[in-house]
Design a protein that fits this description.
Elements lengths: L2 H24 L1 E3 L13 E3 L5 E3 L7 E7 L8 H12 L4 E7 L11 H12 L4 E2 L12 H7 L1 H4 L12 E4 L5 E5 L8 H8 L2
Parallel strand pairs: 4-5, 5-6
Antiparallel strand pairs: 1-8, 2-3, 4-7, 7-8
Length: 196
């Protein structure tokens, strides 16, 4: 085989793999509202400050849940999450950020370090939650609900990296799973946040 053909073949294979990886990172799934098997509003978690946060207070609100990290290539999404919060956050739309250290150990900090990083670098004003595991046997109950069809009533999901976003409507139904590469200001997210 001619050397040029080998180089061209390698380039096409690399390009194909790269495009597949990019599509995987930016893929999203949306669902028609479907009743959950387990009630979203019976969940709870701790805030980053260690205070109890009962999901019952989210009834009637649209919610974006995102797993965050301070040392990730997607960390700049904090800025767009904050823009989304500034434009649409309030009584009808809420963002919950869950720091996690599951992927590349990209969130090694303590609660105080994470809070300081978010405030200093991005002026984060949306609700940050305790650092949790999002996959496996140690997954937090919120992520068990998001990732298991037996709980959310829609589909099984696997969080593959930091800044995976889930959208839960005002009735507590999971309506979207958005991979890390989907920007917080993507039309899918903004339309969901802005809906009256």
């Amino acid at each position: 085989m001619d050397f040029n053909w080998i180089v061209i073949t390698v380039l096409f294979v690399s390009l194909g793999l790269g495009l597949s990886a990019w599509n995987w990172h930016v893929s999203s799934k949306t669902y028609p509202p479907t009743p959950a098997m387990e009630n979203f509003y019976e969940l709870s978690a701790l805030t980053l400050e260690g205070e109890p946060f009962d999901f019952k207070q989210l009834e009637g609100k649209r919610v974006l849940i995102v797993n965050t990290a301070s040392k990730c290539g997607f960390t700049p999404q904090y800025a767009d999450l904050e823009k989304l919060q500034d434009q649409h956050g309030g009584d009808s739309f809420v963002i919950l950020g869950f720091p996690c250290n599951n992927f590349g150990r990209q969130e090694p900090g303590t609660a105080d370090e994470i809070a300081g990083f978010c405030s200093k670098n991005y002026g984060v004003s949306f609700q940050m939650m305790e650092k949790v595991a999002v996959n496996g046997k140690e997954a937090h109950p919120v992520y068990q609900w998001l990732c298991q069809k037996a709980k959310n009533g829609v589909e099984d999901h696997k969080v593959a990296w930091n800044f995976h976003k889930f959208l839960v409507d005002e009735s507590g139904q999971l309506v979207a799973s958005l991979r890390s590469g989907v920007n917080p200001l993507d039309a899918t997210v903004v339309d969901f946040a802005a809906r009256k």
